[in-house]
Amino acid sequence: MNDNREMFYGATPPVFEKARVLRKNMTHHEKLLWEELRFKNILGLRFKAQHPIDNFIADFYCHKLRLVIEVDGEYHNTSEQTGYDLARQRIIENYGIRVLRFTNNEIEEGLTKTVNKIRTYEEKRMKELTLKTN
Questions:
Q1: Domains of the chain in sequence order
Q2: How many of the other CB atoms lie within 10 Å of CB of 98?
């Protein structure tokens, strides 16, 4: 399987269509973070917005680091949604992908701090992946 298809982990056409719709309708906080992630602004790494993975759609995905970044709004605080998010995260992590979560409040109150956390994590993740390949 080529690398381009591999980065979608078996996502089906309906998932791609839903991702396309979500890209056009990103939340305010997703847009704020996307402005920081797009154009390889952080460590020169490419992120994709609303990226299909299996039956799910990650808010942001960096294939090189196998890293998902999720932006969680208020509805993620309900016990039902928290349970779903945890189950979804476990499935995604089974592909060797790591998941970072940020709340809308974290982004609103400190976008620079959020970006710095992402940068620090990316540096750590690059070292992890380098050690695995050596």
A1: 3-133 (3.40.960.10)
A2: 17
